[in-house]
Design goal:
Elements (H helix, E strand, L loop, with lengths): L1 H9 L3 H26 L5 H22 L4 H27 L14 H12 L1 H4 L11 E2 L2 E2 H20 L5
Antiparallel strand pairs: 1-2
Helix pairs in contact: 2-3, 3-4, 3-5, 4-7
Amino acid sequence: MYKLLRQCVLAYPKRAWFSALSAGCFGVAFAGLQLQAMLSLSPCPYCIFQRLLYLSIGVLALLGFLFPAASLFWLLGILLLSLGGLGIALYQSWMQAYPDLAPACGFSNPDLIERLVDVLGMQWPSLFLATGFCSSKEWVFLGLSMANWSVLFFLGIIGYVLILMRHPGK
């Protein structure tokens, strides 16, 4: 299995892997925006922050495509953002699983993430305005909330980056 995976990774240049990651992250952010508009969803501050992380990862992957000589730098940045996103998505999933135990975002003193999302929401409301509650599950697909899906996406990005770190080419 490992040998097959390695052959698959080596079959394409590293720039192709970066472009696919960039397109995937921008696609996830765009899909979230479309679901929000079509289903009249109210994203919470953590949802918006995860959207910001997907866009940031997409930009770093695009930079990895444009400047592959510094690919390790881009991959480390993507890995750090993905680990942060995984932590946020896991925390939000916990908040949705145990809403009675979770502090309601928006009602208590805002944390750093909520403050950042508020500032961004004032600048670009169509993209970053948070109007929902973190513990609510407004959208569920195949039994998983959007936060649960985000956990899986961030895990996928982390796995993708770890595989790409072993790619010897440029």
